[in-house]
Amino acid sequence: xxxxxxxxxxxxxxxxxxxxxxxxxxxxxxxxxxxxxxxxxxxxxxxxxxxxxxxxxxxxxxxxxxxxxxxxxxxxxxxxxxxxxxxxxxxxxxxxxxxxxxxxxxxxxxxxxxxxxxxxxxxxxxxxxxxxxxxxxxxxxxxxxxxxxxxxxxxxxxxxxxxxxxxxxxxxxxxxxxxxxxxxxxxxxxxxxxxxxxxxxxxxxxxxxxxxxxxxxxxxxxxxxxxxxxxxxxxxxxxxxxxxxxxxxxxxxxxxxxxxxxxxxxxxxxxxxxxxxxxxxxxxxxxxxxxxxxxxxxxxxxxxxxxxxxxxxxxxxxxxxxxxxxxxxxxxxxxxxxxxxxxxxxxxxxxxxxxxxxxxxxxxxxxxxxxxxxxxxxxxxxxxxxxxxxxxxxxxxxxxxxxxxxxxxxxxxxxxxxxxxxxxxxxxxxxxxxxxxxxxxxxxxxxxxxxxxxxxxxxxxxxxxxxxxxxxxxxxxxxxxxxxxxxxxxxxxxxxxxxxxxxxxxx
Length: 507
Prior knowledge:
This is NAD(P)/FAD-dependent oxidoreductase. The protein is an alpha/beta fold. The protein contains 14 helices and 26 strands. Strands 1, 2, 3, 4, 5, 6, 7, 20, 21 and 24 form a 10-stranded mixed β-sheet that branches. α6 crosses α11 (310-317), α7 runs antiparallel to α8 and α8 crosses α9. The protein is globular.
């Protein structure tokens, strides 16, 4: 690898990732920090992140588009639960704004970031690939670094070791790397897994496959939701597009949060509601007891959704089925389960989940010392204790990702404006010394538990709690005290600093 020569470029803000979060962040920086220089670094060749990368059949959102979409760009399509290509078109249309498009740098991967308090800036080492495929190392500096690349490893998923898998003579497919030429028409398909990817794949593949079996280790919750939102359709018929979008967004935020709180506070009631709905659709209470009645409570793991009950309809029609068992071994013609049952298969899809990857896999240092995320604390859901001028964009697990992502972007813009007004070059969160630690995500899902030690902890009090509540987070992000638990390079503000406005009251 060769090194690029020349003077080091400096920018005020660098955003990493040109997916749903990064494009939204670019819009906020361009409109709320109009005098700042910035760039969006994207390691791939296209905009869209997850929605450009994942190409498996039926790929879609499991959040409604009125909350997954940006508050500044109304969603105008008919379906509230949108397919992947529609979401990708929406992101690309947003990025087509010249203020955003001209700032995106493709084929640019962040390798390491080093903060210097003396220089009050980050030094970024990047791998930049040219049109001929040659990669060179480039250096860039910035005043504020905003990571919008999520927390998944998009280069490799979670791949458990299956006994005998090499003996299987059929085709094994990983959803993350779906082959464009895969032909499964009329074939026997087994999808291993019961998460969002599996619940999406099964009904979609069932339309053309001979039969699709969803193989799960234990029962899982799946709830049916309408593909279209009648309330939102009515709002759009009678209100201007922007107003209708906000009305639909508010209604869905309230409904989603109310159901989540019901699941956490009255889990037995939530269980009964979900089971009753599933039994009514399937018409088979025994099937529900065996395959859709987990031992855990709703929202101990992320709740999967079936738009228009498509998974249940595929099962009811006989095109698909579900088996709850563990894998004994692969055989040349399929899978032998621990119970002794044989599942014959021509194609096996391993929808076993993604792996989590902190900081996009880049190495971070502060004044020459490596950042130990596992020993750090998360601040307001987006900053890291002891790390100056760095923010991470992390969405909700119990609601639309974009709800928190957009709040984070607006908070970053407020913080940068605040530091400029008060003469600060940088600031970092300072953690309380007597907190009790909890995992950053309160989920029992395997992908979370496997990565707990690699991510920062959340505490037992504000502002160190990773709240899963938009209604509480919004006032903090938009009007909260920006100096709380923050240490700045120049604690004494200039004497001519104006009195903070209402957007800086304590929250």
